[in-house]
UniProtKB/TrEMBL annotation:
Pathway: Cell wall biogenesis; peptidoglycan biosynthesis. The lineage of its organism: Bacteria, Pseudomonadati, Pseudomonadota, Gammaproteobacteria, Alteromonadales. Keywords: ATP-binding, Cell shape, Cell wall biogenesis/degradation, Cytoplasm, Ligase, Magnesium, Manganese, Metal-binding, Nucleotide-binding, Peptidoglycan synthesis. This is D-alanine--D-alanine ligase. PANTHER family: D-ALANINE--D-ALANINE LIGASE, D-ALANINE--D-ALANINE LIGASE B. One of its GO terms (cellular component) is cytosol. It comes from Bowmanella pacifica. Its cofactor is Mg(2+); Mn(2+).
């Protein structure tokens, strides 16, 4: 790949979101890979530098490695478009929709894509007296998710009304809107998308209550299976479903879609990610390696998504 065409590149990582720590690790890994490949790449942390400095320093493009709010939700993408600086990944609308778990569900449900039963609660109107009815309607085992956080931050798995009330109040610390989903008992999968490539699926397994922040980034007990163990027909189905779900939310460039598979073999969409992690324990690099790509090649292909027309 001719890396000179990219010019001067800013790798944006860090930021002020609840996922800052993960972003720092992802960004440093990508920056190192780009430098190794000969790209004129530089670290840039929006927490300590104004975006207008990107213009003053004459950067030609930006690789976004900011996870969560302010980097993955469309606000940064809009600012970069106003500044006239090309950037990686999804545009404003795709970023905003993929970040919002509630609106993702609404769109998938409207298109007939498989997603678990759910209910949305708002901070201004939530009443703990409703928890018994919610638990009964959602099957007695419920996942609680802030609408616009990533890396499983603020999430909890609950099995009774008292736990639900407490978990919702905890989730309200991160967002005014909270998604409650029927818990799908089964196996968890993820599919990474890179340009027009659909990378091999990965199956995750953890002894923890669910695949939470610690299981993703800290625990040594989490197991990853790539190949995931699906037969060729199920692998093709899952890949096609990931592509449809991502594009339904206007996702583009690269991303990752997460699923649960119940005991009957039915897949259910969980969420879509427009700036997936790129740490040593992250899933996209693992899938890319299975597809025969080095980390450096992967970083370059992510950077190449900055050449998408918007």
């Amino acid at each position: 790949m001719n890396v000179e065409r990219f010019g001067k590149v800013a790798v944006l990582f860090g930021g002020n979101s609840a996922e800052r720590e993960v972003s720092l690790k992802s960004g440093q890994a990508v920056l190192d890979a780009l430098l190794e490949a000969g790209v004129d790449a530089h670290a840039f942390d929006p927490a300590s530098s104004s975006l207008t400095e990107l213009v003053a320093a004459k950067f030609h493009r930006v690789l976004i490695m900011l996870h969560g709010r302010g980097g993955e939700d469309g606000t940064l993408q809009g600012a970069l478009q106003q500044l006239g600086i090309p950037y990686t990944g999804s545009g404003v609308l795709g970023s905003a929709l993929c970040m919002d778990k509630v609106r993702s569900k609404w769109i998938w449900q409207a298109l007939g894509l498989p997603t678990a039963e759910y209910q949305v609660v708002d901070k201004s109107s939530f009443n703990a007296d409703l928890c018994d009815d919610i638990m009964a309607r959602l099957g007695g085992l419920v996942m609680v998710k802030p609408a616009q956080e990533g890396s499983s931050i603020g999430m909890a798995k609950v099995s009774d009304a008292a736990e639900l009330s407490d978990a919702v109040q905890q989730a309200f610390q991160y967002d005014h809107q909270v998604l409650l989903e029927r818990f799908i008992t089964g196996q968890e999968f993820t599919v990474s998308l890179l340009g027009d490539k659909t990378l091999p699926s990965i199956r995750m397994q953890t002894p923890r209550t669910f695949y939470d922040y610690e299981a993703k980034y800290q625990a040594n007990s989490t197991e990853y299976f790539c190949p995931s163990g699906l037969d060729s027909q199920a692998e093709a189905l899952l890949g096609s479903l990931a592509r449809r779900a991502f594009e339904a939310l206007n996702g583009s460039g690269w991303g990752r879609v997460d699923f649960m598979q119940d005991k009957s073999g039915q897949f259910y969409l969980l969420e879509a990610n427009t700036v997936p992690g790129m740490t040593q324990k992250s899933l996209v690099p693992m899938a890319a390696k299975q597809a025969g790509m080095s980390f450096s090649d992967l970083a370059l292909e992510v950077l190449a998504t900055s050449e998408l027309s918007r």
